[in-house]
Amino acid sequence: MVKVLNSSQELIQVRNGEQKAIGFVPTMGNLHAGHISLLEEALKHNDVVYFSIFVNPKQFGPNEDFNKYPRTLQVDINLIEQCLNSYTNKKVIIFAPIDAKEIFPTNTNQLVSVAGLSTMLEGALRPGHFDGVATVVLRLFELVRPQTAYFGLKDYQQFLVIQQMVVDLKLPIKIIGMPIIRESNGLALSSRNQYLSAEEREVSLILSRTLSKIGQIIDHKKSNVEKAQSEITHVLKDSRWNYLEIRDAGTLSSDLTHSTKITLLAVFQLGTTRLLDNMQLEIQ
Amino acid sequence: MVKVLNSSQELIQVRNGEQKAIGFVPTMGNLHAGHISLLEEALKHNDVVYFSIFVNPKQFGPNEDFNKYPRTLQVDINLIEQCLNSYTNKKVIIFAPIDAKEIFPTNTNQLVSVAGLSTMLEGALRPGHFDGVATVVLRLFELVRPQTAYFGLKDYQQFLVIQQMVVDLKLPIKIIGMPIIRESNGLALSSRNQYLSAEEREVSLILSRTLSKIGQIIDHKKSNVEKAQSEITHVLKDSRWNYLEIRDAGTLSSDLTHSTKITLLAVFQLGTTRLLDNMQLEIQ
After folding, report:
1. Which of A70, A248, A250, B105 has the fewest beta carbons under 10 Å from its own?
2. What is the strand order of the sheet A261-270 is part of?
3. Are A169 and A214 part of one and the same domain?
4. Within this chain, do residues A130 and A221 fall inside the same structural domain, yes or no?
């Protein structure tokens, strides 16, 4: 078959059709239903899904839980296989480098840094964290070359950092953010939840409940934000909050003058365990 | 199917397998058996062949034959279709932009320049020519994203320039050089041969015959190069030669001290028509 094309636009379209749709889900393993929801979305929309399991040393601070972070590779593989049973004709490639040298061959300190977004909020409390995230994700993107990559919105600031990196570096990759998966009591799923004692687990519900409450106060109206702010001032008297903020959902700016979509971002800390949660709201 | 990989090397291999083998033959059209030999080689080794037909303004000097250059798109398409008849299940995408803006949207003067190789020999006589070639080829590579690209060795210096560009820019593309196709009388096929009168056509055989003769004098022995040089000095008394040189086949350096492969490069001019030819020889 011979096909004649005269425009670059057509050419790019035809060329893109020559390859399988490759989806990518980068994770640090220890999978829960949140990760599996990313995998399912990727399987629905791609021929092949690359799924990486790599506890990235570059995104942990010196006093953080890199060594303690749960590594459960065989269980993770079983979960993925189970999920794949519902998707015949699809293929999952699990990339689980044992040696960090597979990702960072020369252990260079050169980092990708997304200005602005990386240094506020979570980035202010964990200096270098988002540089580590952006660096490993870029490296994985280079290896996997996906058309589409899937991230959980549980790490909302991370999602924005990745999205900005893709724009800044003009990467030909579509970034999809998938909704937070929660336990029935409202607790957002996280590998770090298993650090919690039974008692802490109970207390942790303050986090999602507070977000819901702030969301209800705002009730999609910009005029209610002030009321929400005073509620937040009240809430933050409890020192277990690392932060609880209302920000623009796109820029994370605290100036909401022109915002039509906002995000509540919070970290609630129990012992050494920092629990993240967030919620997006359209306002007018 | 789930596949678990632990090394980046494996990952890259598997990932490369997810896409069809894309071969690319960039041409300026007005096809002859030389071009078709590139197409055949590409069809043998790829699932899909992209074949571009574009008379690139950037590689013509102000007093050169850009306007006169033969454009025979419909005949070219027929030739390609004919060739494809012998390759069932293969596909050819002909990219024949009518408007140069499809390739150079902003008509920027920014050029790719391959230092050294681009300014000697053909590049010295046609200033900017190889910058124009490298620029259009890079642009086409970006659009087509082939794994393999095919070039005729008739333009030997061009082949080296492209090869060097691919190394310099670390492009993930394999460059294949295919042997010169000749008429039975020895004349190397070229679209520009049709500019020749019947009489010039006869005279043009001096070019290939001289190269053969020089090659025979060298006879694969470095010690014979000096003898070949004096023959060349004799030959060059005929002012119709633009140049006739013995160079290292990899670097085009005239210092052959460490050469194990050399190239004879020549341009013989008849009227305004410059005829290129070359020959590679291993020596010891």
Report:
1. B105
2. A241-248, A261-270, A273-282
3. no
4. no
Tell me the C-alpha to C-alpha distance, in Å, between residue B40 and each of A18, B80, B83, B137, B147.
20, 10, 7, 20, 16
How far is the C-alpha of B78 from the C-alpha of B90, rounded, in Å?
16
Give the integer Cα–Cα distance in Å for A67 and A55.
Answer: 9
Residue type (1 letter), A85:
N
Q: Do B22 and B50 touch, CB atoms closer than 8 A?
A: yes
pLDDT at position B204? 97
Q: What is the mean pLDDT of chain A?
A: 95
B108 in the same domain as B45: yes
Strands B273-282 and B261-270, sheet pairing? antiparallel
Mean pLDDT of the region A44-54: 95
Q: Which of B11, B19, B92 is opposite residue A18, by nearest beta carbon?
A: B19
pLDDT digits (tens, 9 = 90+) for B111-156: 889 999 999 999 999 999 999 999 999 999 999 999 999 999 999 9
Out of A6, A14, A20, closest to residue B18 by CB: A20
Is B143's CB within 8 Å of A18's CB? no
How many CB pairs (< 8 A) connect A and B?
105
* Contact status of B102 with chain A (Cβ, < 8 Å): yes
pLDDT-flagged residues of chain B (< 50): none
Catalytic residue among A32, A35, A129, A234: A35
Distance CA B280, CA B121 (A): 16
Report if residue A1 sits inside a domain: no
Instruction: Give me the CATH number covering residue B201.
Output: 3.30.1300.10
* A82/A172 same-domain check: yes
Q: Do both A15 and A147 map to the same domain?
A: yes
A150, A9 Cβ separation under 8 angstroms: no
In a domain, A155, yes or no: yes
3-state secondary structure of B267: strand
If one counts every other C-beta atom within 10 angstroms of the C-beta of residue B23, the result is 28
- Number of helices (H) and strands (E), helices first, in chain A? 9, 9
The complex's ipTM works out to: 0.82
Q: A94 φ, ψ to 5°?
A: -90, 125
Q: Looking at the domain assignment, is residue A156 inside a domain?
A: yes
Q: Which domain holds residue A251?
A: 191-282
- Judged by a CB distance cut-off of 8 A, whether residue A75 touches chain B is no
Number of domains in chain A: 2
